[in-house]
Amino acid sequence: MTDTAGRPVVNFEALFHQAPCGYLVTDDGGRIAAVNDTFVRWTGYSRTTLLGTKLQSLMPVGDQILYATHCIPQLGITGSVSEIAVDIVGADHIRRPALLSASRFAAAGQESGSIRVIIFSAHERRLYETELVSALRAAEESDAKRALAEQELRRLALHDALTGLPNRAGLKARFGAAPHGGARERKSLAALFIDLDHFKAVNDSLGHSAGDNLLVSVAGRLAAAVQASGAVARLSGDEFVVVDEVAGTDDATALAASLLDVMAAPMHLEGLEIVISASIGIAVAQGGDDTVEDLIRRADIAVYRAKERGRNRWELHRPAPSDPAVDRLRALGELRRGIGAGALRVHYQPRIDLRTGRASGVEALVRWQHPTRGLLPPSEFIAMAEESGLVRPLGAWVLDETLKLAESLRRNDHGAGLEFAVNLSARQLNDPGLVDMVEGALERRSMDPALLLLEITETALMSDPGAAVESLNALKNLGVGLAVDDFGTGYSSLTYLKKFPVNELKIDRSFIMGLGLDTGDGAIVGSCIDLAHAVGIRAVAEGVETSGQAQALQDMGCDLAQGYLFARPLPVPQLREWLASHA
Q1: In b/e form, how buried is each residue of 464-492, taking b as 16+ CB within 10 angstroms?
Q2: What is Dmax (Cα atoms) for the chain?
Q3: Which residues, at least 6 apart from 457, have a Cβ–Cβ distance to it below 8 Å?
Q4: Strand, coil or helix: what is 501?
Q5: pLDDT digits (tens, 9 = 90+) for 200-222
Q6: From CA 241, how far away is CA 232, in angstroms rounded?
Q7: Per-residue pLDDT tens for 149-164?
């Protein structure tokens, strides 16, 4: 129930009558003025019988005297009595043991003084107290069991079930995730990665039970050989790691040599004497930035070198100035964050109709505004994006940005009829969602599909020709144009040009650069132009930088060209200015 303001309204009368105990209001002499339903049910009297009756008259004579001589005077002096044991005689003349508590409220204004009495059934109270004590004991036992269970779970989570050694998580808990620099007495942390040699042969020949026994024995030997300051852990399978403080690399290599000696002692398995060996990789902290995980990773790299060099030996990891794998992971993370943070840029290079000298369109070329390396060209990150799958969101973003520009340029005469070329990677071409993505982008920008040109390299087309034909036909059905990029560097086959539904052939810049200098390049360019025209598609020259190259292309009948001779790839504001000045 709520009031007009939506606030909850408390029904005090319902609380009074539904209280779990008898609740009465009397005057100073004990005459009952109000009684709740609980007391009525408990005693068996009707409410009309109780109202006006003195409370003490419901008690045996002894309790009446107690109430009159003890309770009423104390109420007058202190204002309250607490849990006095009395009997209440019910309508059936049976005594009901009870606990009586009362508080006196003095007269105020027009209201006379009153006594408010609470009566608990002693039997129900004892049952309640017994249940409460039992519940408390059960809770305490449950808490104790839960604490023990949690302790055991923590132990299991941090230790290897077979050997009882710490696992990777336990090792991390022991040494923490923070870097360990020069510790006490100028010591450094070292990690020794231990991989048993030919452990699989033991499993295969003697069985997994013998293999487990071998691992337990090795664990015991390693634990006994390492000082209290260090720790031995089992990472997985037959891989162990020792982490300890050392004075330098000499101490670390000496520890590795001693561990090899310890493990070389014969052991007995399944009635056979077995001699085992191990390969050990060592990594020693070089400064304050090395974590235990860093050391284990570097020691793991070193152990592979030990195995390659004959096993049963140790190798020390010597950090190179740069780790290519780490650098790539770092760059990939930066690119992923860059895509989300809006660090990509699209520049546009005009494409020129060699017959008219006017711009026929632009090609979208993505750039990455790297936080430290500046503006990076596609060659610095597209291959990485393609390998990792980031090329899909990247490509979708470039397409949408390009069509957004096309939509904007349509509003003035400079952009009317311009084609917009966007590159597709091999991974995008094989993406089942490519066609839907392109169609959705066109619909969002209300773009004429005929003005969108998608460029695919020869290599991407020929990596899976069957799938490429299917994807290109689906794109062609949307009405978009298709171009073969970097033509001449791959297959350059008339057969596949006829097979794929392309509109345009783009001659690679490496051949354009030789025009006028190398007769072979001139012949190749002329053949590419003739090949394009033979199958009824346009020929486009990339990388045109001199007027001599442009003239040679015109003489050969090339349709379109782009390159620094006409314009570099331009950001949107400069592109608008260029289009306005070359209208």
Answers
A1: eeeebeebbeebbeeebbbbbbbbbebeb
A2: 134
A3: 426, 484, 485, 486, 490
A4: coil
A5: 878 777 888 888 888 999 999 99
A6: 6
A7: 777 777 777 888 888 8
Q: Pairing mode, if any, of strands 504-507 and 538-541?
A: parallel
> Average pLDDT in the 257-273 region?
86
- Reduce the secondary structure of 232-284 to three states and give it as a string: EEEEECCEEEEEEEECCHHHHHHHHHHHHHHHHCCEEECCEEECCCEEEEEEE
Nearest to 484 by CA among 493, 564, 379: 493
Which tens digit of pLDDT belongs to each residue from 471-515? 889 999 999 999 988 776 555 556 667 778 889 999 888 888 888
Token pair for 12: 């005090």
Average pLDDT over the chain reads 85
DSSP 8-state code for residue 23: E
Cα dihedral angle (11, 17, 18, 24), rounded to 10 degrees?
120
Distance CA 100, CA 122 (A): 9
Q: What string of H, E and C letters represents the secondary structure of 168-222?
A: HHHHHHHHCCCCCCCCHHHCEEEEEEEEECCHHHHHHHHCHHHHHHHHHHHHHHH
Judged against a pLDDT cut of 90, whether residue 290 lies above it is answered with no
Q: What is the rounded CA–CA span in Å between residue 514 and residue 544?
A: 10
pTM of the predicted structure, to 2 decimals: 0.50
DSSP state of 429: H
Instruction: For tokens 């500046």, name the residue.
Output: 374
Alpha-carbon distance values, 242 to 122, 177, 361, 539 (Å): 67, 16, 64, 65
DSSP bridge pairs for 223: none
Q: Within 10 A of 569 (CB to CB), how many other CB atoms are there?
A: 21
Does residue 545 contact residue 516 with C-beta atoms inside 8 Å? no
Q: How far apart are CA 245 and CA 189, in angstroms?
A: 5
Which two three-digit tokens encode residue 504?
A: 């345009």
509, 563 contact by CB (below 8 A) = yes
- Asked if residue 47 lies in contact with residue 40, where contact means CB atoms within 8 angstroms, the answer is yes
Query: What would the two tokens of residue 106 be?
Result: 């003095």
Residues 6 or more apart whose Cβ sits within 8 Å of residue 458: 484, 485, 486, 487, 489, 490, 491, 492
The one-letter amino acid code at 143 reads D
Band (178; pLDDT cuts 50, 70, 90): very low
Q: Are 36 and 43 in contact (CB under 8 A)?
A: no
Helix (H, G, I), strand (E, B) or coil at 35: strand
